[in-house]
Amino acid sequence: MDKRPVVAITAEDITDAFGDVYYMAKEYGDCVRRAGGVPFGAASFRCIDEYVQAADALIVVGIQNIHPFRYGQTVGSFANVMDVNTAKDDFDFAITAAFLKAGKPVLGVSRGAHVINALLGGTLQRQIPPRIYLNGDGYQDDVAGGYSEVDASYSLYTHGYGYQKIAVQPDSRLYRYLGGEATVNSFHNQACDRLGEGLKAVAAAEDGVIEAFEHETKPIVGVQWNPEHSCEGYEQNDAVFRMFIDMIKEGR
Fold this sequence. Notes:
This protein has a single domain, classed as Rossmann fold (3-Layer(aba) Sandwich). It contains six helices and 18 strands. The chain has helices spanning 26-35, 48-54, 86-101, 111-119, 173-178, 239-250, and strands at residues 6-10, 12-16, 19-23, 38-42, 57-60, 106-109, 124-125, 131-133, 139-140, 149-150, 153-154, 156-157, 163-168, 181-185, 191-192, 199-205, 210-215, 220-223. Strand 5, helix 3 and strand 6 (106-109) form a beta-alpha-beta unit. Helix 1 crosses helix 6 (239-250) and helix 2 (48-54) crosses helix 3. Residues 142-154 have low confidence and may be disordered.
């Protein structure tokens, strides 16, 4: 592919102080542009077919939890779906399915990885338990929330906010761009559990939470972290987006 790949990025159809707007974080578009692609936001349910025709690939993004029925589980309690946006679920699942059916590359970032996994029949871990690391002896599960200090260092390990190290499998696409170990940010209380059809885990956090997957034969990748966003302990990194643009150019 000689021309710059055109990449659709899922946006949101929302109402805020300015009225009805389409919203997409600018960071995603900047990362795609720097990586060599041409980004555009996709938010209209009625234009999904046109998005598939216009774009060479899709990036699915977002931070909200998806509704449990999308991966075959019951709600349990109203508190479990307080932050669920079913309209966004409908759009993200529909556009992702359309791009997958067309055989075009798809990258899931953060919530987007959960969408891909659920769409392919996988499940989610609905609440990542906090874990305390005790004097090098490993993790103790199911601890109460809040920070705990051991030897004057923070020892509570969660995925809700901050940064962490992940291990990347040598036989993966990501390895060529991140190496065997990388520092990433973390903003989720949920994670992929059982992976969907054809997906394999290629990166994991120190406590075993799946941080990235790739499809065995198709151009599909998902990452749990937000590589586009800097936070305390983590600097924005275009590597994942460079990998994706290269995937598009390679046609696989």
